[in-house]
Amino acid sequence: MNLQRFRENAWNGLWKQNPGLVQILGLCPILAISTSMVNAVSLGLATVLVMAVVNFTIASLRNFIPFEIRIPVFVLIIAALVTMVDLAFNAWLHDLYLVLGIFIPLITTNCIVLARVEAYAAKNDPLSSTVDGLMMGFGLVWVLAVLGGLRELIGSGTLLSGIDMIVPGLSAIQLFGEDYPGFLLAILPPGAFFALGVLIAAFNWINQRAGEHRHARTDDAAEAPAAG
Amino acid sequence: MSARYSAARSSLRTAVIMLVFTLVFTAAMAFIHQLTRPAIEASELQEKMRLINEVLPPGSYDNALLDDSVALGPTPALGLARGGTVYRARLGGEAAALVLEAEAPDGYAGRIQLVLAVAADGRIGGVRVTAHKETPGLGDYIDPRKDRNKERPWIGQFNGAGFDGIARADWKVKRDGGVFDAPTGATISARAVTHATARALAWTLAHRDALFAAAAGDTLDAPKEPTP
């Protein structure tokens, strides 16, 4: 795998094919868990880990999986790996498990894992597939962080509440003061849809502007010789 | 004829491959399970002790609490459809407190599992939520680790409460005319925990003597209701 390939994978995962904003995959956990920034990022990090492990395993085994039964085999492998990651975390990284543990089984409901396996890992070498899994996962992490932060800020006026469970000693930031009444809708599931909608709109707007810029630049370049 | 033959062959082949994958990954899961079991069991025990220490001060008893238990059959008064365990705390051989499990069937999102300690004077040592599915960031304040009020978590209201101080009929949230606080907008979780705690306390007081009299390791099947 070369640098070019790595940059392509990173760009796709983090921006161009972002699982949360473009592929719109894995909505179930995204909308359910993004009530606070810490929860959302925790789920995101658990997803990164699982996607990297799953993509690596399936890319390594891809030549042994018959095309006709690939989906049941993928599902089997994903379920088995998630179970093993869950057990391993519980046994050897218990402190981290207490924070991330409840999110790991949730990942099985996330179709982004199966989607990346089918779209990428089944056709590519293990190393690129692992990078793809990592990058798609990190793409989800930042979307979840923004979504969780937005909902938490509007819903309860804080940021990073619950951080003390991950880094003892830190505490949540009260942005709107103690007497912020809270805005329940942002915390409830409909708020997740609104927030995601706003985020997708902003994402498309940025892409559109970037596109216009590029057009403008290529127009300049095209006109330059004519002018000269 | 040969087409049918090859179709049969190919389905047999995929079936065998599917079977091999299933066997391999089941074996891998079983292996990891065996490998992680001692560590997981140890941390579960530790977690149990930590929880008991939260509802019952470690200095208030001197027996090996986890070994001095009575099993309960299905007990509807505690919400335990499949039974549970009662741990008996003794100080110098005298009855000190009972630690028992209870379940609230009417949480906002399903059942809420509780552990509570009832001291010999009929007061609650403490209540803790062990499992619940309440909305994150909204109804999960019933778990003090998720409660935003760290100095005076919501569940602390039950510490030291008993029927001598609060009449049985007042064990309700304030909104229902009782004495217990509940955050606005998430009363259902508070109501469920309050009612389940009151029921569990009443049941414990009625069966305290029978529970302490039973031999360790015994099963109390549907303990007899006290004669009125």
Automatic annotation (TrEMBL), chain A:
Protein's membrane topology: Multi-pass membrane protein
InterPro entries assigned to the protein according to its UniProt record, in alphabetical order: NqrDE/RnfAE, RnfE
Gene Ontology terms: cellular component: endomembrane system; plasma membrane
Location of this chain's protein in the cell: Cell inner membrane; Endomembrane system
Keyword Transmembrane helix in annotation: yes
Enzyme class, broadest EC rank: translocase
Transmembrane segments: 20-38, 45-65, 71-89, 96-115, 127-147, 183-206
UniProt similarity note: Belongs to the NqrDE/RnfAE family.
NCBIfam families: PRK12405.1, rnfE
The protein's name in its UniProt record: Ion-translocating oxidoreductase complex subunit E
Originating organism: Pseudothauera nasutitermitis
From TrEMBL, chain B:
Membrane topology: Single-pass membrane protein
UniProt keyword list: Cell inner membrane, Cell membrane, Electron transport, Flavoprotein, FMN, Membrane, Phosphoprotein, Translocase, Transmembrane, Transmembrane helix, Transport
Transmembrane domains' residue ranges: none
Record note on quaternary structure: The complex is composed of six subunits: RnfA, RnfB, RnfC, RnfD, RnfE and RnfG.
Secretion signal, residue range per the UniProt entry: none
Family under the similarity heading: Belongs to the RnfG family.
Primary location: membrane
Enzyme class: translocase
GO cellular component: plasma membrane
EC number: 7.-.-.-
Protein purpose: Part of a membrane-bound complex that couples electron transfer with translocation of ions across the membrane.
Obligatory cofactor(s): FMN
Species this chain originates from: Pseudothauera nasutitermitis
Name of this protein: Ion-translocating oxidoreductase complex subunit G
Protein localization: Cell inner membrane
A biological-process GO annotation: electron transport chain
Domain FMN-binding, chain residue ranges per copy: 107-204
